[in-house]
């Protein structure tokens, strides 16, 4: 049976894949740099510097690279974060090239980019993710199939990060007022962890190369997001706008295209954003 190494399996997307990733004919190797007592996990040193040593007697056919150092905000990302993320990617790519693996699937990001064709990168975290895409190009040149999946704001089971979506849900579940910064017209694009899981599985099954953009079909404004959360939770929360300034009021959502994931990977999300949000809120209710 062939082996798939999944990095970052202690992160929220990694945890979801551990539970839900299904691909016949493959054995999954769960990699993490976090302390763990789980005997089914492979414990690596920081930045996967010892990947060659740990897996010296194991034949790896595919790597799914989810692990990343993620800042609380783009503004907090610094040169050290960029260097560490790049070193981690380089350690895994060197292992992949040396051991002639078949495929490398990399979870990338739109990050702070608006015009992705111009690579208008504004922070070190985004720079590290796009650098990872270029390292994938080097692997392609060495005969390894690669897929860089750019995702927008991810949400879903196991995600406990403090962000706007989780803040709205937590306030709604507590029947507390939801303060939407600024006018509430600023838009964002959210992609579910289940969509990410399905797209990665498609990348394992299909022939791939280059960058694939994975987002929801439509963006949603902050005011509409708050209204939807209140409706789903049947909350008594009041929605308040204009009380606080939104420092990101004029931020534009990046341009994207679902052409490649839909036409080349034959990927189709069976659920609407509302349905995905209902499922996530139910999980949060049970895991307060």
From TrEMBL:
Coiled coil: none annotated. Transmembrane segments: none annotated. Residues 4-209 form the NAD-dependent epimerase/dehydratase domain. Pfam families: Epimerase. InterPro entries: Epimerase_deHydtase (IPR001509), NAD(P)-bd_dom_sf (IPR036291). Signal peptide: none annotated. It comes from the Bacteria. Belongs to the NAD(P)-dependent epimerase/dehydratase family. This is NAD-dependent epimerase/dehydratase domain-containing protein. It comes from Arcobacter caeni. The lineage of its organism: Bacteria, Pseudomonadati, Campylobacterota, Epsilonproteobacteria, Campylobacterales.
